[in-house]
Specification:
By secondary structure, the chain is an alpha+beta fold. It is about 30% helix and about 20% strand. The protein folds into two domains: about 30 residues; about 200 residues, 3-Layer(aba) Sandwich (Glutaredoxin), CATH 3.40.30.
């Protein structure tokens, strides 16, 4: 028998062994949902990373512990110090933006104003808008920005006063929202926080928690140029669910 034939037989034998030993294990893990794919982040997350609730809005778990908003302390548009404790008892949306952003920030702000107007009768709903350019986004600048967008919710704070590194950590680690302060890049996503300060989200069509909500596409647009569907409508629904908890 030729040497090349021995090579083919060897490869076939290895493939056969792999199929007998490992494929059933992989299939079994998938059936048990030990492995799920989060399409928005394209990574593998563990089954125990999320905890379901009756409302359908999951808790994000880190090492089996519900992820809570980290402690923070910033200055708002009125020069008042605002901390995470000021939001306890309120359901609120978190965003990262900057006032001179010419592209996605105006769209995000308009969508949040629309949410504000629809939920104007809920006194325990709020928004936390963290500037990723704290050096230029002073309280005075933020105050004007709020007025320009007709922000009327007393629980909507435009927050500044910390260095870019602190903002980076708060966004990426604290709220799981991508921000690159070096290049002034940010995702345009919103995070949703419940009354006790825990991060919450719904599941996507595949049963995986979304973690955050797309903040750029409006309800009226329905889809963006890439075919991504708007999520402002489901964010409104989920805010109302948490307000009833």
């Amino acid at each position: 028998m030729k040497k090349s034939n021995y090579s083919y037989i060897g490869v076939a034998f290895i493939v056969l062994v792999f199929g007998i030993i490992f494929v059933p294990k992989i299939i079994n893990r998938i059936k048990n949902k030990d492995i799920v794919r989060d399409g928005s982040r394209s990574n593998v997350i563990a089954k125990e990373s999320f905890e379901s609730t009756d409302s359908g809005l999951d808790y994000l778990l880190i090492d089996g512990v519900k992820k809570k908003v980290p402690q923070f302390s910033f200055v708002n548009q009125d020069g008042k110090v605002i901390t995470n404790k000021d939001y306890i008892g309120k359901v609120y949306v978190v965003e990262f933006f900057f006032t001179t952003c010419p592209t996605i920030c105006p769209r995000m702000s308009r969508n949040l104003v629309e949410i504000q107007n629809e939920l104007k009768d809920f006194k325990d709903f709020g928004v936390a808008s963290f500037s990723i350019m704290p050096e230029t986004d002073t309280p005075e600048v933020l105050k004007q920005y709020a007025e320009d967008y007709n922000v009327t919710n007393p629980n909507w704070n435009f927050l500044t006063g910390k260095g870019e590194e602190a903002v980076y950590d708060l966004a990426n680690v604290g709220f799981n929202i991508f921000v690159d302060t070096d290049n002034f890049e940010h995702s345009g996503d919103f995070a949703l926080v419940d009354r006790q300060g825990y991060l919450r989200s719904r599941k996507d069509a595949f049963g995986n928690p979304k973690i955050f909500y797309k903040g750029i596409i409006s309800e009226q647009e329905k889809y963006d140029e890439d075919g991504n569907e708007e999520e402002i409508s489901i964010l409104k629904e989920d805010i109302k669910k948490l307000l009833k908890e």
